[in-house]
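P.,

For your records, the input lines for the assembly:
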Amino acid sequence: MTDKKKFDITKHIGIISSLIAILAGMIVAFIILMISKPSNGVQAFLTLISGGMYVRADIVNLGNVLYYATPILCTGVAMCLAFQAGVFNIGGPGQYTTGAFVAILAAVAWGQKLPAPLSFIIPIILGMIMGALWAAIPGILKAYFNVNVIVSTTMFNYICMYYIVYLVRMLCYDQLKGQTKPVVANAKLPKGFLAGITNNSSADIGIFFAIVAAIIVWFILEKTKLGYELKACGKNPEASRYAGIKSKTTIVASMLLSGALCGLGGALNHLSQAGVYIKVAESIAAEGFTGIAVCCLANNNPIGAIFGALYMAYITVGGQYMQLYGFQKEIVDVITSVIVYFAAFSPFLGQFIESRISRKKVQKANAEAKSEEVTQ
Amino acid sequence: MSIVYFISRYFMYFFIPLLVVALGAMFSERSGIIHIALEAVMVWSCMWGTLCLQWLNDIVANGQLRLIICLLLSGVMGILLTLLLAVAAIRLNANQSIVAIALNTFAPAFCIFYVRVLQGGSEHIRIYNDFLIDEVPILGKIPILGEMFFKNVYITNFIGIAIFIITYIIFKKTRFGLRISACGENPQAAESLGINVQKYRYVASIVAGFIAGVGGLMYIVPISTYFSQTVGGYGFLAMSVLYFGQWRCGSVLLAAIFFALSKTIASAYSAIPFLANLALPDAFYKSLPFIITLVALTITSKHDHAPKSCGVPYDKGMR
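Structure tokens returned:
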């Protein structure tokens, strides 16, 4: 038998369960659309799954996919790293917003004075540092005081939500529009060649920063000692402590890195050419939660997160057109949640598929044995 | 004195739903299923409850009866959403935290979507509030306490206290409560004594869903005349109450009192002369309950009494 060439399904269970999750999300979306407005349901669904191409067949839509993928790729990679280390960081929104705020502050203050590449790189770095610091506190609370990370990061999201409104008003307020002051063009991320090939869409070089970040995180996790320790702690903190890994330091380190990535996402999004501002409204940044969906789709793999983020951005762009048919763009969040829900039991799905296959193999072997007996 | 009455009334508005939702979650967590999806259950069941209130407005004339019917409906809807979590956790061995995050994303998004489609644009569900009881007979006559707790009250206050007493009795005195705890502490041992762990976990989840759903509607009725698909982080606060209360009825009660006080200060500080004079930023008071939560958890989490098998899918073969 040529076993090598044969497609071995057990090795691809991760991808298969992600595809099943995506499919389930689509089916639920279709059902909800059809029930709530049968007359427009089919058209709205086609718009959604074509990424807006059904309404407006233009390369701009694909460019916008890159633009929307940038922040959620950063938060998604952040979640991959944290989840692999066994730390349930759902403080993405807070880390994202604090990072974005510091980046905006720096860009508004120094955007004109610094030369071109530095004028956006320094705010981005400051944003990353801020995100990391904001995430470090729950990390320390977990490592040294055993505070549940899910609870503490949620609390930090709310604290951030209230204080950001106050700080924007104090430090960087555009009173007419009720949002942060605009960032000067010099400090915005350039579009580069992307403007040319995507018909001047919102895409800018931020997506490359995000992809590089994903690759670096993959490298850290797979090829370095730190990554090995992170994963060991995630799998079994007790055993890794016996093996001499400092689990407390590891938890704090994973939160620092994860927060820095969220801060990067916030900074990249708010320094984009499209002009994103922090509004004076008590709301929690959705990008932080979308990161969890990206991470679930990617099975905690940073490289997989690139595709996960592109997919989530793709349906977001489709969702933008929903209002044409009298639907709300919240349908995208519903799809996201269904995807996350199904991704949660992908291990079970994997076991199920595997047991089916092995049962078939056993049956086959039994049948062969019987036929051999008969011939003898 | 009028300030004391005002604050005590406000206090009850926050205290009752916090207590009720935390008790609901306690059923689930004591049986071994992490229930982070409280926010989702509250929003979801509150939406159905308020829609039902609107619908029954002309049909059922008696305000109290209408409220009770809608509370029951909220509870049933809460069960439906919690079953999504329960099935995933018990039958499909899913990661319970991720499922809960999925539900927490799903409920607000779906509710905004659905209500906007239903009402053609607005996500606010208006409630006609005629549930206030001016004075409870006899008890309202008690000098100071009567004024504080038995005048201008909602029936939800008494339902909430009743839920607490029933929960206390269930966990302290009944076989059912002990068996739920056994499933959360050591399911293998429980199974060896003939307890059907999966069945008890389902039942505990159903009870949890019902109580949390009821708590969702209890939250919105006293404090607002419309529901706009958010409960303002209340589900998470309730979860912190449970953690701070160390999964025990009495401590949960104390924790709920503590949190409700901080929440009361946060939202009524402008009416308290002493605090209003301090002129601290609004953000400080609004985030106060969350900061206090963190401090409280930092102090108490080191040696927690969490159910030992909470969040661990039940595997019969494991020892």
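Two observations worth noting. Residues 116-145 of chain A form the longest helix (30 residues). The beta strands of chain A are 173-174, 179-180.

Regards
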